[in-house]
Amino acid sequence: MLDLMKRITEAFGVPGYEDEIRTAIRGEIATLVDDLQVDAMGNLVALRRGAGGGKRVMLAAHMDQIGLMVTHVDKKGFLRFAPLGYLFALASWGTQVRFLDGTVGTIGLDGRVNPRHDLPTLHDLLVDVGATDPTEAGKRVGDVATFWRPFVAQGNAWFSPSMDDRVGCAVLIEVLRRANGEVLPHDLYAVFTTQEEVGTRGATTSAYTIQPDIAVAVDVTLTGDLPHARPAMEVALGRGAAIKIQDGGMISHPGVNQLLISAAEAVDVSYQLEVLQGGSTDAMSIQVSRQGVPTSAVSIPSRHVHTPSQIVDGRDVEAAIALLGSFLRRPMDF
Amino acid sequence: MGDLREILQNLSNEFGPAGRESAVRTRLRKLVEHFADGVEVDALGNLLVHKTGYGSVPRLRVLLAAHMDEVGVMITRVEKNGLLRFHPVGGIEARQLLGKRLIIGDERVPGIIGAKPIHLQSEAEWEKSPDLDGLAIDLGASSDAELSGKVKVGDYGVFATRFSVLSEDPGWPTVIGKAFDDRAGCAVLVALLEGEYPVDLVAAFTVQEEVGLRGARVAAFRSTPDAAIVLEGTVCDDLPQDEDEDGPAVTKLGAGPAVTIMDRGHVAHPGILRLLRECAEAEGIAIQYKTPGIGATDAGSIHLTRDGIPAATVAVPCRYIHSPAAILNLQDLADTVQLVGSALQRLSADHLRRLT
User: Fold this and answer.
1) Which residue is closest to A24 within chain B, CA to CA?
2) Per-residue pLDDT tens over the stretch A140-193
3) What is the per-residue pLDDT for B1?
4) Which has the closest alpha carbon to B279: B232, B334, B346?
5) A317 and A262, same domain (yes or no)
6) Which of A33, B58, B79, B143 has a Cα at 20 to 30 A from B132?
7) Alpha carbon of A22: minimum distance to chain B alpha carbons (Å)
């Protein structure tokens, strides 16, 4: 599992530029599924046929991570950028980034902001690739980069800048791996989606194509376990997989949630209930696809989401895998 | 280029805010009917023009979209004294409106958004920008009764600017007018329809882009294309700048068609981007990239339609869009026609394939 996490968290993939992570995931699952397609939006759609007579179940985890796109190369070779997904200026300063071609840079702060007194905005930041002029910088408008740090496992605490949502991708891969050779009652569509961070776009089109009977997004969620957490939130690291009741973009289907709770209890997996104020996942778009899809989400609690060093707990990851495995083996009537 | 200028002139002068595009649609229909293999108007008012390609079957189907609507205002109240209160339709800001002439309603009544003369302003007012709620349109009427039958709540207004030529210099042929966003795109699309291509074309002149990319959404659903290219008139930002600033100029006038890599509504399909770069090189057309992260186009709706549609945006740079008068370089307009025409000739299924 740790080797898988390392491969999946360290592959490059920002919204619209998910080729590297898609290739990596394809390599992990190619022998585990009956059909594998890449659609017009770049979603990787894996089908694992069931016994027949079951439901069409869609599990979605997004491949893209937050990043940045170069908007301007100045005369000294510094790169201004636009965010790909929500970037905190505060958390970005001093962070190392890696471009699609492997070039490394540091996010620097220009002289207009005094970091001892003021909070920067994204307009005050630049990427410094250590160049002295634009030619040496070797970058052009449209080039993309993302936070770059290696995956670290320190006991149960796992660290990566791409935990959102590579941990969800790893969970889906592991669910497929553990079910290998077994006949499940339902047709499972494991979908690795694109462009979630810029508006759940890949999920929008893949849900249209698949027309699932039931859908569950697998993504990270915030926690309420930091000191002075506001708003108050029950979810904490290490207490199990989180079953989403609602977030800023979706109210989960109560029937699907009951199935998830029963699935967890049937195999004695610890879970927690999640009410997230603000933020959303692919489930938001899947739920309103075509005539509507009963949808929920299973979340892996993560501290410091959208910063360069996001933490999840390996026990919660294991719980999410076990919960989804149980869910897929049970009847889905409500 | 003379023909292109005349097309742009006629389109620019038409009245067509979001939701009331009929005059633009009627003119476009007349312009393109004889090039088309089929013309239809859908439930929302999109004009869909079909043109069959000459290539062997199966042919790719390409959606080209340009929006007919422009920014404007809608009348919300007729005051007893005959002044009209209004709400913006699309992205208009108060500072652009002060002292500007408008045309209101189906009767095309002229009026002006009044501003307090400088003589009557306090020093504090000089420093402050006005609030939309404080503005009113003056038709020169003495009372609401005088306007009855001519103007009512719900009527639209657009800027009254008439198109004119600024420079005949073939090296720098500039024109000025309203609604270049997106009548420039419409003009490009009309010119493209004169050509013959190996692909099947659906030319969609869309409605209600300025209020949320609405027409394009249903036009894309109906036309089920293999790929889409959106044609726009986009922002230009080459006003005098502080040299030390050295920031991005969004696009520059006269620097060629502006290709979008990413904006607030879509990330351009990498295969279509590659195609556009190939075409620019092959045709010797200078192109520029619109600064990523700014604005949105019909591609935002189109690429998310049904199973997803590979889409990109090519735009004619215009100074001062969403204001009463924008400036455009006709060479940029002609080069956009040539670039997209070349893309239609060279587009292959290979460009639309995703890497694994």
Assistant:
1) B356
2) 999 999 999 999 999 999 999 999 999 999 999 999 999 999 999 999 999 999
3) 63
4) B346
5) yes
6) B143
7) 6
- Tell me the average pLDDT across A287-312: 97
CB pair distance less than 8 Å for A141 and B356: no
Contact B308 A205 (CB under 8 A): yes
Task: For residue B103, give the nearest of B69, B127, B137 by alpha carbon.
Answer: B137
Q: Which residues of A are the active-site residues?
A: 196
Q: Would you call B194 a catalytic residue per the annotation?
A: no
Q: Which amino acid is at B131?
A: D
Beta-carbon separation of B307 and A16 below 8 A: no
Tally the residues of chain B: 356
Domain that holds residue A99: 67-147
Contact assessment for residue A198 and residue A67, using Cβ atoms and an 8 Å cutoff? no
Q: Which residues of B touch A82 (CB under 8 A)?
A: 262, 291-294
Instruction: Please count the CA atoms within 13 angstroms of the CA of A174 that sit on its side-chain side.
Output: 22
Task: Compute the distance between CA of residue B61 and CA of residue B223 in angstroms, rounded to an integer.
Answer: 9
Domain count for chain A, please give it. 2
**What is this model's ipTM?**
0.87
Residues of chain B contacting A83 with CB distance shorter than 8 Å: 293
Domain boundary (A78, A113, A147) is at A147
Question: pLDDT tier at B352 (50, 70, 90 boundaries)?
Answer: very high
Nearest-angstrom CA–CA distance, B73 and B113: 11
Structural domains of chain B, with CATH: 2-70+178-352 (3.40.630.10), 72-159 (2.40.30.40)
Residues of B with CB under 8 A from a CB of A: 246-248, 261-262, 266-270, 289, 291-294, 303-310, 352, 354-356
Which residues in chain B have their CB less than 8 angstroms from residue A26's CB?
A: 356
